[in-house]
Amino acid sequence: MKRRILVIGLDGATWRVLSPLLEEGALPTLAHLVAEGSHGPLRSTVPPLSGPAWVSFLTGKNPGKHGIFDFCGLQRENGKRPALNATHLRSATVQHLVGRGGKRVGTINVPFTYPPRPVNGYVLTGMLTPRDDEASFAYPPHLIEELRQELGGYEVEADYDRFVDIQDSLPPATCRITDERGLAEEIMRVDTKRKETLIHLDREFEPDLTMLVFTSTDRVLHLFWADFEGVQAGAERWDATPGGEVMRDVLVHVDGLIGEILGALGRGCTTIIMSDHGFGPWNRIFYSNQWLVDIGLAKRLPVLRRLDGRFLVLIRKSLRDVLARLGMQVVADHLPQAMGRVGVWIPRLRDPGWSSLVRMDTVKAYSGTTGHQSFYVNRRDRERGGIVAPGAEYERVRGYLVERLKELRDPMTDAPLISRIYLKEEIYSGDALSLAPDVVVETEGGGCWMVPRYPFRPLFQDWNMGCHRPDGLVVLHGSGVKSGIEIEGARIIDLAPTILYLLGLSVPDDMDGSVLEQALEEDHLRRYPVRFERVEWSEEEQAVSEFTEEESAAIKDRLRGLGYIN
User: Which terms in the Gene Ontology molecular function aspect does this entry carry (predicted)?
Assistant: First the structure.
């Protein structure tokens, strides 16, 4: 009987949330896998951002080798940062390595797999797939029509826009859930379709490796973390608030879907449950680009030109408010997308950004996207429109940035805001190091997330949602896996080499991760020692395919609607 591997990604899942549900007996599938397998925390990338974390999972490498540090690329002369896609990866991925080894692979909803590349099996792309690009989210392409006929179609993402309204063009930023129950039903409907799709395609392709990611877990933890904190403190039941009930219902539903998938795939399947990062409270917003202006690393435009930028964002906000008050909430909810489509031809109406507020020829540094907790020096030899010379000037600007970061204080406690500062060479290594953010930080307790939006003051805003933490989770279960032990020190980069090893394939010798031998039976390791090989990356695989301006704008709208960028 051949060995099969099933990897289920629970985006953002953390033991902090799942352990109480396990104790209640609400997650029987996960409880079974934990009791009879190996489990523990799983360390994410630095910072723990979904884009680079999922790519590190796929490649077994740090971002300095695979080249993905953020959802967006380097800043251009107009202040915009283009959305990235799978062709920007600078490394082979586990699904392609499995195919090269003569085995079949199936991939559903894994981030950074768009556009789909040919594999020995099938791919249905995930996050960063343009919403209106129905013709190309699958490989082989005929699966789109097949799924339409057999299952009524496939949806890359639930329609969160119908239920979640994030307004952050002007302070104070707000997040409003218009219908908690409707949102839960929409999420569970799409997750059920993912399960049905996997089972259908498993019969057709019989993959040796199947990977499915549920991104819904991340979405509900972002939106309803404040509701969970009451449950965690023992002050409330899960159903005491609509948000807490949504979170519990979605997590319980996903556990049931995993059980159905395991039942359909049958015995002999080794299962890996994992997440790309953990979660914790998000208490404050720090407007990082505003701060860069305040410390002299960018200069404002003259006031009349700056008012133009403010006027454009006011148009969008005011129109939405007026429509809502007139009882036209549905129209108001779709206004950002409508203005987005207009904004393809009038970019400043879509997203005024830096260029409507600061002089681009004065920008010496800029912030990463929301939650990226990083800063880039605007280098002349790297960014298009960069102004800082490499060498001594670069070091002066970066050194000044580091010293000013050390001076930042938490407005609530007056304690230092930044708990740790990394220079890029301290945490990344590889041929893509030049693309890395130049400074990465951790805030004290992790509860203050940087948002690059330029807000016209103040620097800080109270907030009450969930944000990422470094420790996700991992569970391994099946033949050759130890039973009932807790893993220590596992990293997200360890999963790709572990998957290859369990499939009997060699591990590329340039992977940063290691096989999780502590989770595997000693007899299995003795009989099947880990083998390494040199893997060459072809020119065809290195070819980059940029999003069109319209596609990039649509992707950034989706990320903005989910709170990932500003």
Answer: hydrolase activity
Listed in sequence order, the residues at least 6 apart from 252 whose beta carbon sits closer than 8 Å to its beta carbon are: 21, 26, 27
Mean of pLDDT over the chain: 87
CA-atom Rg of the chain in angstroms:
23
User: What parts of the chain have a pLDDT lower than 50?
Assistant: 1, 304-311, 340-351, 539
Q: How far apart are CA 273 and CA 287, in angstroms?
A: 35
Q: How far apart are CA 216 and CA 164, in angstroms?
A: 13
4-277+470-562: CATH topology: Alkaline Phosphatase, subunit A (3.40.720)
Please write the tens of the pLDDT for every residue from 109-147. Answer: 999 999 999 999 999 999 888 875 555 899 999 999 999
For 292-295, the CB contacts below 8 A with 24+ separation are: 292/363, 292/365, 292/366, 292/367, 292/375, 293/358, 293/454, 294/459, 295/400, 295/404
Q: Provide the token pair at 515.
A: 């096989």
Specify whether the CB–CB gap between 289 and 453 falls below 8 A.
yes
Enter the tokens of residue 61: 């490498």
Q: Are 126 and 227 in contact (CB under 8 A)?
A: no
Q: Where are the domains of the chain?
A: 4-277+470-562, 293-300+353-467, 310-349
pLDDT tens by residue, 245-285: 999 999 999 999 999 999 999 878 999 999 999 999 988 88
- Taking a C-beta distance cutoff of 8 angstroms, is the pair 124, 107 a contact? yes
